[in-house]
Fold:
Amino acid sequence: MARIFSVFLISGLWCSVIAPAWAGENVWHKIALDKVHIVSLTSDPARPSTLYAATSVGVQKSMDNGSTWAKLGGNLPEDAFPNAVLVNPLNSKELYVSYDGRGIFKSSDSGNTWQAMNEGLPNLSVRCMAISPKDPNLLYIGIMGGVAISTNGGKLWHMSSGFKRTVNVNAVSIDPKNPQFLYAGTGGAGVFKSGNGGVSWIDINQGLSSLSITALHIDPENPDIVLAGAYHPATPTDFYVGEANGGVFRTSDGGRTWNETTLLTVTIFSFAAAPEYPEVVYTGAWGGAYRSVDRGESWVDLNEGLDNAFLHKIFVIPSVPPVILAGTTFGLLSYTDARLEKLRHKDSGASRGIRYGAAGVVALALAGLLWLRRKRKRAVQKSGRPVW
Structure:
């Protein structure tokens, strides 16, 4: 028993002082597409290791989490750059690619062949795309002049109402719990909201100090929380007097009022959520990468190892800890956010040590009880009287 007790003692003390170190994490690494401008990233919902990217050298596909890429051909335009790729969540063979000036193209065979899908569009200046999480035939695209809707998988489009003809819609986001509610971010007219599936829209800009909206994010657990990323002008003369301009703005009441967050005076390009951590949001900006662990209220930068500050698209690979991919002006970067798990605990850094220390204490306690019980059992055997 003394030998067992010694083993428990050594193991407990070792566990109490040793916490595993993260190697090669919490720093950006370039992994692929060197010197390629990447503006959009998405994955196959059925096979998360399969990724698609809209780049300066066309639409690219990876089947190994972004390590290697191959260009998709077919009859996609060769003289124009794609700006977004969309995957049907219920049928991953169906893909959509958008171009600012060429409209929408669709593939039904995983990107081998493509067909233009522009019937009904008043112009081909497509800025963004979104697909209903409950009806994959229901598509939304942001174009110059508003939001266009298709109810038949892109075969025919019709315009919604509520936008001026000169307004560019840069982002469309759908409420994941109730797809009747949508948000649209515009270049110069702020944020718009629809409560009838995108048929009509109204502006909801109270509290916004920038109306040049570049990205949107709806909280997956509480859809009343919405983040709006805004453009930050390059010259001080473009500032609103006495107000912040650019950065991340937040509403917690479905867009009735907006508030500033701690991330201001930067241009936001995109948002991404970590599926295993619904309270966590990442953003890519002209200035680097940032993370929020409180649903977008406060932000810290994640720029260690970053070799350029133009992170156009942030995408999170579902894992623990999360792996963040960033499409930049000069290639694809990867960052494993190993510190995130520690930040979710109150001690913000010693949680793993505490857990291992607790395991050691429990081991010592069990060993001590076993030793004491055996000692008293021997005493009973010698005296013939019960001890307890």
The longest strand covers residues 277-286. The chain has two domains: 1-19+351-388, 27-343. Residues 351-383 form the longest helix (33 residues).
